[in-house]
Amino acid sequence: MVWLRSVIYYLFVTLVALFTGAVAGVEWGLGFALAVTLISLWFHLYNLGRLHYWLQHPRVDNVPGSLLLWQDVFDRLYDQVRHQKKAKERLSATVDRFMSAGEALPDGVIILDEYDRIEWCNPAASHHLGLNQLADVGQQVTHLVRHPPLRDYLKNQDFSHPLMLRVTRPQEQVLSVQLVPFDSTRKLLLSRDITSLDRVQTVHRDFVANVSHELRTPLTVVGGFIETMQDMPDLDAGTRNQHLQLMHDQTQRMQRLVEDLLTLSRLESGQQLREEEVDVPQLLQQLLTEAEGLSQGRHTVSIGAIARAKLIGNHDELHSAFGNLVSNAIRYTPAGGSITLGWELRGEQGHFFVRDTGIGLAPEHIPRLTERFYRVDRGRSRNTGGTGLGLAIVKHILQRHQAQMVIQSKLGEGSEFAVKFPAQRTLD
Q1: What gap in Å lies between CA 224 and CA 217, rounded to an integer?
Q2: Residue 146 DSSP class
Q3: Is the predicted pLDDT of residue 44 greater than 90, yes or no?
Q4: Residue 31 burial by Cβ neighbours in a 10 Å radius (0-12, 13-18, 19+)
Q5: At the topology level of CATH, where does 197-268 sit?
Q6: C-alpha–C-alpha distance, residues 177 and 173, integer Å
Q7: Closest CA to 205 of 372, 377, 36
Q8: Left (φ > 0), alpha (ψ -120 to 50) or beta: where does 198 sit?
């Protein structure tokens, strides 16, 4: 051991001093001992100064070297500094990975101190709540996110459930915000964008309400006529037949609604598309015949353009989508108007269109036409036999065929519903 060597060294110096005193005299021995003591003192002060200087600038590459016990001290310092450097590098790498993981999270994360001041936030939280990751550090979160429900949530300290927060900046969003304490002073404020989920829930509520409303009306009519016929068994044949016809019309309406709901459910289930060659010119002739039967001579129905090109797609689904567009044109075109069907190539893209001279649409209605049960004129739609699901079905069918619907309309002048198919689905 180094300390043992140091003890042996000083014992040796002492023996030499005693030997010198015995041989040359006491004065020489004391002089030799004093000289060795002064040299040792200078050696220790020198190394102590080097240690003090190194402590002011501690680095692993400038640890001093020396002799005897001081060398052991410096070696141990070197080992400790090297281990601390490696531990610091590991800790730094862990913190970097944690920060990278936090910044990559799709949910917002804000670290708050005991006074609800921001210590750190990730980009998602910055986007959700309109924060600046650098400039807002040290600011109270309630001073930056001015929502009374959030202030009350933090004040009440009831963090067992999340808070639903509707924000409008930087954009309109619905957020689920929850506070999670993770030590005695700090808390995590987590935010999640649930705008899509909230929209789905709203659509679901509206869908259930609309279906209930659409079914209630015909059921009320049928039920009323049944009660009338039960209470008045001696109705004349004409009145009875009129009631039966109205009941039949209402049951057909319910049947169409149920069939459309089943079709929409099947399309939304994401079943694989069964593709085939669709002879669009032949399908156009079939649609013309169906349109003439539906119009019953009240309109002029014609084919304006017919290309020879075919489509890769599902015949039944395309027939349903095109048929919905044609039947809508007939329903909303007054008697004496005209409906024109067409199929043409524009470049390499196939275009199917239906033009009419009907009542037309105001611009604000066009973006919402494919919503389920959306009606421009609710009373008129029911009178014409629509279920409110036709264009929603068309939208899903076209999405399955990577097609796009473009609507052009002027109020009181008519409309054009055009469907554009990508070049890879067109067979010239």
Answers
A1: 11
A2: -
A3: no
A4: middle
A5: Helix Hairpins (1.10.287)
A6: 12
A7: 372
A8: alpha
Could you give the CA distance from residue 368 to residue 388 in angstroms, rounded to a whole number? 12
**Which residue type is seen at 80?**
Q
Q: Cα 152 vs. chain centroid, distance in angstroms?
A: 27
pLDDT at 6 over 70: no
Q: What is the pLDDT of residues 252-268, one digit of tens each?
A: 777 777 777 777 777 77
Strands 187-193 and 173-181: antiparallel
The H or E element that residue 115 is part of is none
For the chain, give every domain's residue range.
2-99, 105-193, 197-268, 276-427
Rg (the chain; Cα; Å): 44
DSSP structure string for 345-366: EETTEEEEEEEE-SS---GGGG
Lowest mean pLDDT among 109-113, 123-127, 272-276, 408-412: 272-276
- Dist. CA 357–CA 354, nearest whole Å: 10
Q: What is the DSSP letter of 191?
A: E
pTM of the model: 0.54
The predicted structure's pLDDT at residue 248: 81
H helix or E strand, kind and range, residue 86: helix 68-104
d(CA 38, CA 91) in angstroms, rounded, equals 46
Q: Quick one: residue 417, left, alpha or beta (phi over 0 = left, psi -120 to 50 = alpha)?
A: beta
DSSP labels, 239-307: HHHHHHHHHHHHHHHHHHHHHHHHHHHHHHTTPPP--EEE-HHHHHHHHHHHHHHHHTTSSEEEEEEE-
* 320: exposed, middle or buried (Cβ count in 10 Å: 0-12, 13-18, 19+): middle
Q: Tokens 């014992």 label which residue?
A: 11
Report percent pLDDT > 70 for the chain: 86
What's the rounded mean pLDDT across residues 44-59? 78
pLDDT, greater one: 403 or 19: 403
**What does the pLDDT average to over 312-333?**
90
Q: What is the second-level CATH architecture of the domain 105-193?
A: 2-Layer Sandwich (3.30)
Which residues touch 239 (CB under 8 Å, ≥6 apart)? none
d(CA 238, CA 235): 8
User: Regarding the domain delimited by 276-427, which CATH topology (the fold level of the hierarchy) does it fall under?
Assistant: Heat Shock Protein 90 (3.30.565)
